[in-house]
Amino acid sequence: MNRIGDKGQPWRSPTLTGNEPDLLPAMDLTARIKGLTPSPSPQTTCRPFPEVISLNVGGTLFTTRLSTLRRYDDTMLAAMFSGRHYIPRDAEGRYFIDRDGAYFGDILNFLREGELPQRDRVRSVHREAQYYAIGPLLDRLEETQPLTGEKVRQAFLDLLPYYRDNLERIVEIAKLRAMQKKARFAKLKVCVYKEEMPITPYERPLFNSLRFERADGDAKLFEHHCDVDVSFGPWEAVADVYDLLHCIVSDLAQRGIAAEQQCIGVCDKHLINHYYCKRPIYEFKITWW
């Protein structure tokens, strides 16, 4: 059975890039349903439910109509309350769902009247919508901020396939240095450059003429590794160095890691003739406590 979105189109699970640390990996609804306990009565194909349902979701109590839970056929909640599966009850007789109930109210509000959560709750509600396989809600959420902005950001980061590895390298180096020095923070040098041109703008006309006249053997002189811990670049996009720096600091913050950065100059390594590497160097300060 295909899930139908609120636009009348078949709903498809969102494609994940691996760079979304706060998103739950999509799981096929069939696989989730298989994890439910079948009704203990084989003669009963559909167990009756009351019109008003009392729920205990991870210790948080809710009351809603049965029709609300069954609003969209091809969802986890509709399957749970179809009568084909056993649902445990708590000591007070409420149907129990072993899930954090912090955002279940947002799920119910959408099922009731299509209401979307406030922006600061979108990411978390999106995770819950994935778990309950509510396709129409996922469609709506992915058209709002911050999820739409995250798609645009990921399109930029896809230009740097080594981005995640470099981010891990920053964390590992900073942690190792802090532990070695028994320090509260650690500093490391990071090169972030958009263009391969190892020159300043006013030198570009001179460099272009040299580039076409130099021997093939000279090319290696312009290919070097700056004396830094981690290097990002080059890339081709409108997004600039400051945009990538924002991504690095933001992604570290998502992991609870406090990071500050400041430009401390350029590489300035001699390349050939009077040309020097002008890639900017940034000092990152990672504070651990």
Automatic annotation (TrEMBL):
InterPro entries, alphabetized: BTB/POZ_dom (IPR000210), BTB_KCTD7 (IPR057891), KCTD7/14_C (IPR057890), SKP1/BTB/POZ_sf (IPR011333), T1-type_BTB (IPR003131)
Gene3D superfamilies per UniProt: Potassium Channel Kv1.1, Chain A
Domain BTB as annotated: residue spans: 51-149
Lineage: Eukaryota, Metazoa, Chordata, Craniata, Vertebrata
Chain segments annotated as coiled-coil in the UniProt record: none
Name listed for the protein in its UniProt record: BTB/POZ domain-containing protein KCTD7
Record-level GO BP terms: membrane hyperpolarization; protein homooligomerization
A single Gene Ontology CC term: plasma membrane
Organism of derivation: Poecilia latipinna
UniProtKB keywords: Cell membrane, Cytoplasm, Membrane
Stored PANTHER family: BTB_POZ DOMAIN-CONTAINING PROTEIN KCTD7, POTASSIUM CHANNEL TETRAMERIZATION DOMAIN-CONTAINING
Pfam families: BTB_2, KCTD_C
Record SUPFAM superfamilies: POZ domain (SSF54695)
Subcellular localization, as worded in the UniProt entry: Cell membrane; Cytoplasm, Cytosol
CDD domains reported for this sequence: BTB_POZ_KCTD7 (cd18366)
Region (Disordered): 1-22
